[in-house]
Specification:
The complex is a heterodimer of chains A (250) and B (244). With 250 residues, chain A is an alpha/beta fold. In chain A, 38% of the residues lie in helices and 25% in strands. In chain A, helix 3 packs across helix 4. Chain B has 244 residues and is mainly alpha-helical. Chain B has one domain. Chain B is 78% helix and 0% strand. Chain B is globular and about 55 Å long. Chain B starts with a helix and ends with a helix. Classes of the chains: A alpha/beta (250), B mainly alpha (244). The interface between A and B is medium-sized, with 32 and 24 residues.
C-alpha cells in the first residue's frame, strides 16, 4: 500500500513548553488512524504540524511524497483538514463557503455546483445550504467543517475531533462515511471516544505528554487489559498508558 | 481562477455582508460633502475645482482605512479560520495580495461614488481635468498605503479594536511627518538633509506633490514600493505568528 503520510521525529515547543516531543508517524492508503490521548497531550499540535499550520521546531512531514517544507503548495493539495473546533466564516452561507473552499482547492468552476451537491448529500447539509453559518447549530457547523475537508476528494484526511458535538445518528453516519473513505485514503482523526476507534479505525495511536505511547490495532490495544478486567477494557488500557503511574496506583 | 482572485472575491464580498460597507460609504460621502462644500469653501472660492475635496482625503482615509483593514487578519485569527486559510493550496503571498486588493478596491468604490461631485464641478465651471485625475490617483495611493499599514498591524493581533487604534496612530505618524509644523520643529536642530529625509517618508508630501497635477514617477514609486514592502512584511508576520 502507498505511504501517504510520513512524519519524522516531530518536535514542537512553545516557549518553555514541549508540546510534542519526537512523534513519528507513517500512514498508508487504506488506514484509518485513531489519534488518542488526554487533554493537552499534543494531538492538535501534531495535526497542525501534519497540515503545515505549525512549522515543527524540528522534524519533517511529507504528504504523498511532497515535503511540506519544500513543496508546500503541492503538499497542501493532497489533504483535507478539519481543524479543532471546525472554524468557518460566520457570515457566509454554507453554499458560499463551500464555493470558496472548492475554488481555493482548484476545482473547476463548472464542477463546483455538483461537488457541493454531492458533499451536501453525504454529510446531510442539503437543507441548510443557503443558511448563514452563524445561525447553524453546533452539530451542523461541524458537518460544514467535514464537508469542506472532503469536497475535493483528497487522498489524505486530517480531522481533529470530527464527531464532537454530533448527535448519535450523525455520529453513526459520519463514522460510516469515514469507514467508506478509509478504504482508499489515509485518514488521521483524533477523538476522546474510545469506542469510536473500535468502530472505525484500523489503527490506534496514543499520545501522552507529547510522545507516542502506543501504536497498534484496536484489538491489540484492548488486549493489553488483563483478563480480570471485563468492563470498559479500553478505558482501562487508556488510563494505564496515559495517566502518571502514581495516579493509577491510587 | 488565479489563487489571489479566489481570496479577493471572498474578501470583497465579506465587506458587503455586514453593515460595515453601508456605514463606511455613507460616512465617507457625507464627510466628503461636508469637507468640500462647507469647510473647503467650494462655493466661496468662486472656482470650480476639486482641490477642497482632495485636500481632505488623507484625513478622511486616516479614520476610514483602518476600519477596512482591521479585520483582515485579526478576524481570521479570532475565528480560527486562519488555520483553514493558511493550509489551503494558496501561497501566503497570494492571500496577502488578495486581501489587500479587496480592501483597496472597496476604498476605490468609495472614491468612485464621489463622481457626482466631479460632474457638479465640471458643470459649474471648466476645471483642469488633468489635475482632477491626478487627485484621484493621489487619493487611491493614500488609501493603498494606509490599508497596507493596516493589514500589517492586523496581522499582529487578534483584537480588531487594537488593530484599528494602532493603525490610526501609525498612519497619523507617516502622514504627519510631512506637516510644516513638524518639519519646522525639526528644522531648528537637525540638518536640512535630515529634514528632507523626514519629509520624504511622509505620505502628505507625496500626496501634495501628486495633487499638484503632475504625476511624478518618484511619488508613484514611493507609494507603490511602500505598499509592496508592507505586504512582504505582512507575509512574514502572518507566517511567523501562525506557528507561535
Ligand atoms: N499556541 C500555543 N501556545 C502555547 N502553548 C500551546 C499552544 N498550542 C498548544 N499549546 C500547549 O501544547 C500542549 C498540547 O496541546 P494540544 O492542543 O496539542 O493538546 P490536545 O492533545 O489536542 O488536547 P485536547 O484533547 O484538549 O484537544 C498543551 O499543553 C497546550 O497548552
Ligand atoms: Mg486538541
Amino acid at each position: 500500500m502507498r505511504e501517504l503520510i510520513s512524519a519524522n521525529n516531530l518536535h514542537k515547543s512553545f516557549a518553555e513548553l514541549r508540546a510534542v516531543n519526537g512523534v513519528s508517524l507513517r500512514v498508508n492508503a487504506g488506514e484509518v488512524v485513531g489519534f488518542l490521548g488526554p487533554n493537552g497531550a499534543g494531538k492538535t499540535t501534531t495535526m497542525r504540524m501534519l497540515t503545515g499550520f505549525h512549522d515543527p521546531s524540528s522534524g519533517s512531514v511529507s504528504l504523498n511524497g511532497f515535503s511540506l517544507a519544500d513543496d508546500p503548495i503541492p503538499a497542501r493539495q493532497t489533504f483535507g483538514y478539519l481543524p479543532e473546533g471546525a472554524p468557518a466564516y460566520p457570515d457566509m452561507t454554507v453554499r458560499e463557503y463551500l464555493q470558496f473552499i472548492a475554488s481555493a482547492r482548484g476545482i473547476a468552476r463548472r464542477e463546483i455546483a455538483s461537488k457541493i451537491d454531492d458533499v451536501a448529500g453525504r454529510v446531510r447539509l442539503r437543507g441548510v445550504l443557503d443558511q448563514v453559518i452563524e445561525t447553524l447549530s453546533k452539530g451542523f457547523k461541524r458537518r460544514v467543517g467535514i464537508a469542506q475537508a472532503i469536497i475535493h476528494d483528497p487522498p489524505i484526511l486530517i480531522m481533529d475531533e470530527p464527531t464532537d458535538g454530533l448527535d448519535p445518528n450523525q455520529k453513526h453516519e459520519v463514522r460510516e462515511l469515514i469507514r467508506t473513505m478509509g478504504s482508499t485514503k489515509a485518514i488521521v482523526l483524533s477523538t476522546h471516544i474510545l469506542e469510536e476507534v473500535e468502530a472505525v479505525c484500523t489503527r490506534a495511536v496514543v499520545i501522552a505528554a507529547g510522545r507516542i505511547v502506543f501504536d497498534g490495532t484496536p484489538e491489540e490495544f484492548e488486549s493489553k487489559a488483563p483478563a480480570s478486567i471485563t468492563r470498559n477494557r479500553m478505558d482501562y488500557v487508556f488510563r494505564q498508558l496515559t495517566a502518571p503511574a502514581a495516579e493509577v496506583a491510587l | 481562477m488565479n489563487p489571489w482572485r479566489v481570496i479577493f472575491r471572498r474578501e470583497f464580498r465579506a465587506y458587503f455582508s455586514t453593515p460595515l460597507a453601508a456605514v463606511f460609504l455613507v460616512v465617507f460621502l457625507f464627510m466628503a460633502g461636508v469637507f468640500s462644500f462647507s469647510m473647503g469653501g467650494l462655493f466661496e472660492r468662486g472656482q470650480a475645482d476639486m482641490r477642497s475635496f482632495f485636500q481632505f482625503v488623507p484625513w478622511l482615509f486616516l479614520f476610514l482605512a483602518p476600519a477596512l483593514s482591521m479585520r483582515l487578519w485579526a478576524e481570521e485569527r479570532r475565528l480560527g479560520t486562519i488555520e483553514i486559510l493558511t493550509t489551503l493550496p494558496i501561497s501566503l503571498w497570494d492571500t496577502v495580495v488578495g486581501k489587500f486588493l479587496a480592501a483597496w478596491s472597496f476604498s476605490l468604490v468609495a472614491l468612485a461614488l464621489t463622481v457626482p461631485l466631479w460632474i457638479t464641478v465640471s458643470w459649474l465651471g471648466d476645471p483642469d481635468q488633468g489635475v482632477i485625475a491626478a487627485g484621484y490617483i493621489a487619493s487611491a495611493m493614500v488609501a493603498g498605503i494606509f490599508l497596507a499599514i493596516g493589514g500589517f498591524v492586523s496581522a499582529l493581533t487578534k483584537n480588531q479594536v487594537i488593530a484599528f487604534v494602532v493603525t490610526i496612530v501609525a498612519c497619523f505618524l507617516v502622514l504627519l511627518s510631512g506637516f510644516p509644523l513638524v518639519l519646522n520643529f525639526f528644522r531648528g536642530w537637525v540638518s536640512p538633509a535630515a529634514v528632507d529625509a523626514i519629509a520624504s517618508v511622509s505620505v502628505l508630501t507625496h500626496f501634495n506633490s501628486l495633487m499638484r497635477g503632475v504625476v511624478e514617477f518618484r511619488d508613484v514609486v514611493y507609494f507603490v514600493s511602500g505598499i509592496f514592502a508592507l505586504m512582504v512584511a505582512t507575509t512574514f508576520v502572518v507566517d511567523w505568528r501562525k506557528s507561535a
